[in-house]
Design a protein that fits this description.
With 474 residues, the protein is mainly alpha-helical. It has one domain (5-323, 330-472): Ribonucleotide Reductase, subunit A. Helices cover 47% and strands 7% of the residues. Strands 2-1-5 form a 3-stranded antiparallel sheet. The radius of gyration is 23 Å and the shape is globular. The relative contact order is 0.13. The mean pLDDT is 96. The chain binds benzoyl coenzyme A (BYC) and fe (iii) ion (2 copies). One fe (iii) ion is lined by residues 151, 212, 215, 241, 244.
Length: 474
């Protein structure tokens, strides 16, 4: 299944064989490009950017690299190949053939899942719109743009499903995906974290480390779906997601590396002296981590959710690595230990597993995200320093689920409103932290040069040197 690049919309879904669908998507395409021009990376329409473009769905050689102007990027529709004889792997329909079309009884829920997934993609591009103006290097600028065009492609992936499988309301939803705006008071994006700002590059790296990882886990759960066009679409999206998370992990790591270097040179951990030296002190990095981690784990939804139970039982959304698990994949009689807010404290309760599936996925995410934090700590350890970073307790700073009613310190102690207010500036980025980080954000665009607060990467993109001209300005 090669990609057909002679068509307006590159695809491996035989778009040409369905004229009505092709026309509908060709109608949506200019609206998407209009959205990109007004909400995509600011001031970057004419740049030539060294980008990878998906050219197939094979594990090896699925992408090709070259200079592209972003509005001309070939956003395409790619699904991994059909598996013959595939069956639904979980829930009430387990063992039945997968659905190639939307089952009527699950239409509303499927549409809701696809719209929620689709909404996050343009939201992230909107959140990152201004970052190009303060890039720490050409290498980083190129990675930002790479992520932006791929999030645009993820929007295409969901819009394809809406147009192909949901008729008129699908087309209306596809329009609405271009009209909601991140952070807009009247017409915001659907999920909380996608209405927050990504005002500086430390936020960007934390976002791509934590929030794109929510993307990975949600996409893994959807890749198990009994609705096979959704499963095959999300499987391919995961190929791109790995790079987004890499950009986040390595970005934070490089910031930490510079900070540690300055701590050793100046023999100090005094934030004021480190800031004066042009690096970001570790307590500030910890506060950014606390913020992005807590708003991201909200994205998994409420700890008890009848929606989650329905999505699973109806075969629409599975668990992370569903097929690797050895239970009965129906979970009717299973329970899960759930940490819950009860009467002003935290207590563990057994909950029906089906209703706790948002928490199950969140816990899988938590384990996975600690890995990178451990690798960040290795950077500090290698520098011979005693400080360590940590993820906060999962009840810290939550807005969704039972923890939302409590105030919880990063260590997990429930605290009063008064204590919270007195100490929140130690735990979450303050206005002055953000102002300081913003003050470091100069625009560095000379090939091979890096801003004061961040170390160069170990290697360049696609085996190019680190000082390669990743972006040419026009
Ligand atoms: N903010 O029963 P619950 C990505 C609402 S990221 C605001 O727990 P459910 C990416 C909820 O809608 C991956 N509202 O909900 C990353 C519900 O509202 P109603 C995105 C929230 O449905 C970086 C109510 O609270 N993909 O791809 O079980 C860059 C009750 O909650 C939030 C997906 O999320 C929130 N955080 O769980 C680019 C996959 N959480 O019905 C891209 C698809 C909950 O009472 N989505 N609510 O009005 C889903 O599977 C589910 O919708 C959720 C929520 C897991 C998100
Ligand atoms: Fe995405
Ligand atoms: Fe992503």
């Amino acid at each position: 299944m090669d990609v057909n690049y002679s068509e307006k919309i590159p695809n491996n879904v035989d778009l040409a064989g369905d004229r009505t669908l092709q026309r509908a998507l060709e109608h949506w395409q200019p609206r998407f490009v209009d959205w990109w021009r007004s909400m995509g990376p600011e001031g970057a329409l004419a740049h030539d950017v060294y980008l990878r473009t998906a050219v197939g769905v094979d594990r090896e050689g699925w992408a090709q690299f070259g200079y592209v102007k972003m509005p001309d990027y070939r956003w395409g529709i790619f699904l991994t190949p059909v598996e013959s004889g595939a069956v639904i792997g979980f829930g009430a329909h387990k063992g039945q053939p997968v659905w190639h079309d939307v089952p009527g009884e699950h239409r509303a829920n499927l549409r809701r899942i696809i719209v929620t997934q689709g909404d996050t993609e343009p939201a992230s591009v909107e959140q990152q719109r201004q970052l190009g103006n303060t890039c720490p290097s050409l290498y980083d600028l190129r990675n930002l743009y790479q992520i932006n065009v791929e999030e645009g492609r993820h929007l295409w992936a969901m819009v394809y499903l809406l147009h192909r499988h949901f008729g008129r309301d699908g087309r209306e939803e596809a329009e609405a995906l271009l009209t909601r705006r991140s952070g807009d008071a009247d017409n915001p994006r659907i999920l909380g974290a996608f209405n927050e700002k990504t005002p500086d590059w430390l936020s960007f790296f934390m976002f791509t480390y934590f929030t794109d990882r929510d993307g990975k886990f949600q996409l893994c759960a959807l890749a198990e779906s009994g609705f096979e066009p959704l499963a095959r679409t999300t499987q391919f999206m995961l190929t791109e997601e790995a790079h987004h998370i890499f950009v986040g992990e390595s970005g934070v790591s490089r910031a930490i590396q510079r900070t540690c270097q300055a701590m050793n040179e100046l023999k100090t951990d005094d934030p004021a002296r480190l800031r004066a030296a042009g690096v970001i002190d570790l307590p500030t990095i910890q506060r950014y981590l606390n913020f992005h981690y807590s708003v991201t784990i909200d994205l998994f939804g409420a700890d008890r959710s009848s929606n989650a139970a329905t999505f699973y039982s109806s075969g629409l959304k599975g668990r992370y690595e569903e097929t690797k698990r050895s239970d009965d994949h129906s979970l009717q009689d299973a329970s899960y230990p759930l940490l819950t807010a009860v009467g002003g404290t935290l207590a563990e309760q057994q909950a029906p597993m089906l209703n706790a599936l948002n928490e199950v996925l969140r816990d899988d995410f938590v384990k996975d995200s600690m890995g990178g934090v451990g690798r960040w700590n290795k950077v500090i350890e290698k520098a011979g320093l005693a400080q360590r970073l940590a993820v906060p307790h999962k009840a810290f700073n939550r807005r969704i689920g039972s923890f939302a009613e409590l105030r919880v310190a990063p260590g997990g102690e429930v605290v009063s409103e008064a204590v919270w207010n007195a100490r929140v500036d130690e735990w979450l980025p303050t206005a002055s932290d953000r102002a300081f980080v913003a003050s470091l954000m100069g625009r560095v665009v000379e090939p091979g040069r890096f801003a004061s607060w961040i170390a160069p990467p170990a290697i360049g993109v696609n085996r190019q040197p680190v000082d390669f001209e990743y972006v040419r300005f026009n």
